[in-house]
Write a structure and sequence with these properties.
alpha/beta, globular, 42% helix, 342 residues, GH10, 9-stranded parallel sheet, binds ligand G3I
Amino acid sequence: QPSLGALARSQGLTFGAAVQGQLLETDPDYHRAFETEAAILVPEWEAKWSALQPQEGRFDTAPLDSILRWAQSRARPVRGHALIWHNDLPDWTRAALGEGRDRALAVMAAHFDRVLSHARGQIRDWDVVNEPVANPPGSDVPQAGPGELRDTPWLRALGPNYIDIAFRMARERDPTLRLTLNEYGIEEDTPDATEKRRRLLALLRSLLARGTPLDAVGIQAHLQMVRPFRPAPFAAFLAELRQMGLAVLITELDVREAPSPPQDMGARDALVAERAHAFVATALEGGVRTILTWGLSDKYSWLATEPAVALRDGRTHRGLPLDAEWRRKALWEALARAFQGR
Ligand code: G3I
């Protein structure tokens, strides 16, 4: 059966995944999977602050460049992730952001100057701001700041306008870029996700009302089996985004599985596949044309830090299309079916 990348392309879609450059070099199975399955890539960490500018003024683009070279030689697009985020910030940046508005603006501008000029023509769309919306009070980490924005060093340094400032700074430096706002926890049919969708829509409306150069919304889609998903509310949300003239892409899809005893693995795989299918089918019906999973194989999933959700003949399952032995899972089949509208 053809790869997910090829199946997607045959339907006018683009499928890919988050990649780590060094694994492309060190793990032949990893390399083969990306060669086969991923038509678009996003660096899992190589385009973040702690990787790109570990000390002020010292840029290390080597890890990112190895991904850009690999992708370039295969004519595959690379997404940029992420210009502004509260996580993976070096200590020097956190300190600088506490030294007043002018310093914060200068630090942001210097990073954008270097990174956007370095990647120009190689990265066509960036997550300019990642996860700016505060999670609702009941959820995991409430960080309510003014205007329902997550309380981050950027917000504290520059106020709620930091988002508008970041998008304008990116647009000024490279008008050819597609500028994306990326968020999580906005997919499922829970009170928290419903509230977070409302908050995100309000933020987007206010940004567009003031003319912020914003082109797209990235929906991370770290789905969790312990939460319900219903197509209708998510479809309505996608329709609102399209009404605002925003492109929408799925940026980090994976499915965190509920812990269950090994003997239930088969049933659980089927439920995970069903969830992924329902979600992707709804996204495609809502106009989404680009879908990335957050990695390809359970062997390297970020969820590996989670307690093993289940072991079957020694394999741990982490919600990506390929299992730890690079075999296609029911989730892989579900994505293939959804891409073909089946
Ligand atoms: O920076 C070092 C690098 O110098 C070293 O060579 C390399 C060796 O493996 O590790 C690098 O460090 C870690 C990196 O993952 C690679 O493993 C970083 O310390 C660690 O913080 C980083 O974690 C990433 C995390 O974001 C924070 O950036 C995870 O891989 C990545 O899966 C996770 O992804 C986030 C998205 O960006 C946003 N959405 C949620 C998603 C999951 O948390």
